[in-house]
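Design job #97: recover the sequence.
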C-alpha cells in the first residue's frame, strides 16, 4: 500500500501545483486520485517567498520612477513600512536624484518629507525646481549622533511624513532594529544613507543597495539584500541631467492678459497742443528765462560746496 500525504509537494516555478492524494490497491482497481492546489507562499504569509523569484507580497510599494529598477525590486517599487538602506562611498553621487521621482509622487499627494541629518545644506531653489513646496520639507539637524538618532525615531514613530531620509554615519545594529520596528507600524517610505564600510555589518533593512557613480550621470546599483534571488552584476541606471531635471518640471506662471491702453479726449488735446511747433518755441524761450534767473539744479543736488555754473564754465578740465 502506498500513501501520498498532502503535506509534501514539489516546489517549482509554477504558482500552483496539483497534488495527488489517494491509495494504490493491488489488483485491477485504479488508485483514487484527488487533485489539490497549493497556494503561493506569499498568500500564506507576507514574509514567505520562493528563493528563485522576487517576493510578490501584499505589502504596499512606492514606484521608483525607473522601469529598469522596478523589475529588480520586490513588489516593483520601494517598500513601504520598512527600511531601505543605501550604501554610498560619499555623499552627492546621485542618491537624491535617484529618489526624486518617488519623492515627487509623495509631495504630489500633499505628503511631507523629512530630511534628518543631511551632509549638506538643502538647496531650496533646487527643491522648488523639483516641484517640492518648501512647506512640505522638514530639515532636522543635530550635533551629536545620539540626538540625530533620537530625532529619527520620533519622526518615524509619528507617522506624519510620507517619506523620511536619514543620514547615519555611525549606527549600531540595535538602533537600526528599533527603526525597522517603528517603520513596520506605518506605511512610510524610509531611506537610510550609510557609508559603504557599513556593508560589513548586519542590517535589519528589508532592502539593501550599494550605490556607486559610473560616470556620465549613470549610477551603478548593487543588490546586497532583497527578498528574492541574488544578482551578482550591478544595474547601470542612467539618471536625469542635474540641470535639466529641475527645469523640466518648473511650473510656468500664468500670463496675465494685456489690456489695451486708452486715452481720454482731454489728455489727447493737451498732448496735441504741447507737440505743436508754436508751443515748443514758447517752451524753449521760457526755459532760457528760468535758467538765467535761477540756480543750476546741480548745485542743489551736489550740496552747497558745488561750484556755480559760471565757475564750472571757467574751470579747465584736466
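Job complete. Output follows.
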Amino acid at each position: 500500500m502506498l500513501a501520498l500525504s498532502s503535506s509534501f509537494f514539489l516546489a517549482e516555478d509554477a504558482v500552483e501545483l496539483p497534488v495527488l492524494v489517494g491509495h494504490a490497491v493491488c489488483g485491477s482497481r485504479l488508485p483514487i486520485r484527488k487533485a489539490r492546489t497549493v497556494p503561493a507562499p506569499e498568500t500564506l504569509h507576507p514574509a514567505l517567498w520562493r528563493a528563485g523569484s522576487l517576493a510578490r507580497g501584499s505589502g504596499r510599494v512606492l514606484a521608483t520612477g525607473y522601469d529598469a529598477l522596478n523589475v529588480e525590486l520586490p513588489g516593483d517599487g520601494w517598500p513601504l513600512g520598512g527600511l531601505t538602506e543605501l550604501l554610498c562611498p560619499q555623499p552627492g553621487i546621485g542618491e537624491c536624484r535617484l529618489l526624486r521621482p518617488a519623492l515627487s509622487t509623495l509631495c504630489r499627494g500633499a505628503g511631507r518629507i523629512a530630511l534628518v541629518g543631511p551632509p549638506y545644506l538643502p538647496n531650496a531653489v533646487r527643491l522648488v525646481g523639483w516641484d517640492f513646496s518648501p512647506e512640505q520639507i522638514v530639515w532636522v539637524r543635530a550635533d551629536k549622533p545620539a540626538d540625530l538618532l533620537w530625532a529619527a525615531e520620533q519622526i518615524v514613530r509619528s507617522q506624519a511624513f510620507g517619506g523620511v531620509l536619514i543620514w547615519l554615519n555611525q549606527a549600531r545594529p540595535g538602533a537600526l532594529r528599533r527603526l525597522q520596528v517603528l517603520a513596520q507600524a506605518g506605511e512610510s517610505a524610509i531611506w537610510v544613507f550609510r557609508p559603504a564600510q557599513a556593508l560589513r555589518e548586519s542590517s535589519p533593512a528589508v532592502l539593501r543597495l550599494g550605490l556607486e557613480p559610473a560616470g556620465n550621470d549613470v549610477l551603478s546599483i548593487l543588490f546586497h539584500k532583497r527578498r528574492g534571488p541574488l544578482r551578482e552584476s550591478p544595474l547601470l541606471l542612467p539618471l536625469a541631467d542635474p540641470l535639466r531635471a529641475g527645469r523640466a518640471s518648473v511650473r510656468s506662471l500664468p500670463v496675465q492678459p494685456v489690456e489695451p491702453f486708452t486715452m481720454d479726449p482731454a489728455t489727447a488735446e493737451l498732448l496735441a497742443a504741447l507737440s505743436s511747433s508754436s508751443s515748443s518755441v514758447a517752451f524753449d524761450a521760457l526755459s532760457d528765462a528760468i535758467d538765467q534767473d535761477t540756480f543750476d539744479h546741480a548745485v542743489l543736488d551736489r550740496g552747497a560746496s558745488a561750484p556755480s555754473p559760471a565757475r564750472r564754465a571757467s574751470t579747465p578740465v584736466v
